[in-house]
Design goal:
alpha/beta, seven-stranded mixed sheet, six-stranded mixed sheet, 16 helices, 20 strands, binds succinic acid, Aldehyde dehydrogenase
């Protein structure tokens, strides 16, 4: 099966959907955009073997601001040839990069981290410009993204092997850890920086080289980060960036025997195709796919903590994260009180352009994202659910959507069975702990889950029973570079971040040294 076949279902391919124009785009945003264009980190070409390059046929693709539809710039529409050259460059660079000591690679990564932090403001602005999230949240993403580079710069020095006690006196047994080789990294638009650094940081630390294909919706952050990697002295070919024709780039990465690993964050549909496509050359895969996060609020929860946690877990990035609370499952004794307090909190969320002070909810990424939200809501309402807040496009137009709360949601509604990826909070009701666990686990997804309770025994019982890779207890934001991030079931394979994140980029080699008794 080929990457090309799944274009329609893919998050990473949605770049080809048109974005509506909004005639009265704010002047403030336009001036940020023109100032950024003069920045040395504002790059608009692909990076292959240390050189900034156009698409070989000079075709381009537009990058637009989702908040006002304005054209930001054009980027190369690359495909098979450019990807193959990027793979060759990465393969060539691997020969020397993998031979450096961990301490040497660590220095390069540390330089890169320092430069990212020194350009935090500009990077944050680029994220807001092309992705739409509020600037404060974008600056938070820069910190988060940079933290993976810093963490893996340190962790690079701790890739230990083993000596195994030998069962035969004349032999010695060793385990070496070695880099897997060239890595193809396919990344999404919702975290244009952090999803790249979470992959490239550990890959480079281990001695791998990388070809990144960022989302065509948000390539400018990736290119700015790559420019900073060059400034940090990371040698040509170690980090390459190609973008444009996603199916062709994906196919080239899958087909190449030189690419030894694919790492992907995005939709489950695309992840499955990549996994199937990687079989031909038996590549390793790490997949961070969609979620359907339950957020369970028990009667014994602290109401304020639960409201604050659910708000953060649901409305971060306007509901556009794989770990966003997708189903808020509330026990009957606290249901009405929670619904009322949660509505009050959600009413305070300010929707608008991410550059406007005080805005907490930016636009959705594109028109098809809004249409998905609308169709899910329609489905829920036709089956008896009730909108108690929001429920329609925001008066700002474009892809702005009102923060929405829906009550009376049932498991058979799309809002509960699929990931809405937008600012809609469906509330479901339950009676017993067993029922909550049953509802929570009744999904193919298994990325993040949240629970709110003051009962310590329940915390353990429920955390252990939840079929999820990540569990937040009395906390709505749980992502950090020091903890393993990843899902079970159809939410993916492998872990990112933390010491476990390194294993994804390492081969384990056993060496048996024989004939020790010979003199
Ligand atoms: C994601 O949405 O894929 C990542 C979210 C996170 O890192 O917290």
């Amino acid at each position: 099966m080929r990457f090309q076949q799944i274009a329609a279902a893919s998050k990473i391919l949605s770049s080809h959907l048109p974005r509506m124009r909004r005639p009265n785009a704010s002047r403030q945003v336009s001036s940020v955009a023109s100032a950024l264009k003069n920045s040395p980190i504002f790059r608009t070409m692909g990076l292959i073997g240390g050189k900034w390059v156009e698409a070989y046929d000079h075709h381009t693709l537009q990058v637009n601001n989702p908040a006002n539809g304005e054209l930001i710039t054009e980027i190369p529409f690359m495909g098979t040839l450019e990807t193959n050259d990027a793979i060759s460059a990465a393969s060539e660079a691997f020969k020397s990069w993998s031979k450096l000591t961990a301490a040497e690679r660590s220095k390069y990564l540390r330089n890169w981290y320092d430069l990212i932090m020194a350009h935090k403001e500009e990077l944050g602005q680029i994220i807001t410009l092309e992705q739409g999230k509020p600037l404060k949240e974008a600056l938070g993403e820069v910190n988060y993204g940079a933290s993976f580079i810093e963490f893996f710069a340190e962790e690079a020095k701790r890739v230990y092997g083993d000596i195994i006690p030998t069962p035969l006196g004349d032999r010695r047994l060793f385990v070496l850890k070695q880099p897997v080789g060239v890595v193809g990294a396919v990344t999404p638009w919702n975290f244009p920086l952090a999803m790249i650094t979470r992959k490239v940081g550990p890959a480079l630390a281990c001695g791998c080289t990388v070809v990144v294909k960022p989302s065509e919706l948000t390539p400018l952050t990736a290119l700015a980060a790559a420019e900073l990697a060059l400034q940090a002295g990371i040698p040509p070919g170690v980090l390459n960036v190609v973008m444009g024709n996603a199916p062709k780039i994906g196919d080239a990465l899958l087909a190449s025997p030189q690419v030894r690993k694919i790492t992907f964050t995005g939709s489950t549909a695309v992840g499955k195709k990549l996994m199937a496509g990687a079989a031909d050359t038996v590549k390793r895969v790490s997949l961070e796919l969609g979620g359907n996060a339950p957020c369970i609020v028990f009667d014994d929860a602290d109401l304020d903590v639960a409201v604050k946690g659910a708000l953060a877990a649901k409305f971060r990035n306007s509901g556009q994260t794989c770990v966003c609370a997708n189903r808020i499952i509330v026990q009957e004794g606290i249901y009405e009180k929670f619904a009322e307090a949660f509505s009050k909190a959600v009413q305070n969320l300010q929707v608008g352009d991410g550059f406007t002070e005080g805005v907490t909810q930016g636009p959705l990424i594109n028109e098809s994202a809004v249409q998905k939200v609308e169709s899910f809501l329609q489905d829920a309402m036709s089956k008896g659910a009730k909108v108690i807040l929001g429920g329609k496009r925001h008066s700002l137009g474009m892809t702005f959507y009102e923060p929405t709360i829906v009550t009376g949601v049932k498991c058979d509604m799309l809002l509960a069975s699929e990931e809405v990826f937008g600012p809609v909070a469906p509330l479901l009701r339950f009676k017993t702990e067993e029922e909550a666990i049953q509802i929570a686990n009744n999904t193919k997804a298994g990325l993040a889950a949240y629970l709110f309770t003051k009962n310590v025994q329940r915390t353990w019982r429920v955390s252990e029973a939840l079929e999820y890779g990540l569990v937040g207890v009395n906390e709505g934001i749980i992502s950090t570079e020091v903890a393993p991030f990843g899902g079970i079931k159809q939410s993916g394979l492998g872990r990112e971040g933390s010491k476990y994140g390194l294993d994804e980029y390492l081969e384990v080699k056993y060496v048996c040294l024989g004939d020790m008794n010979r003199t």
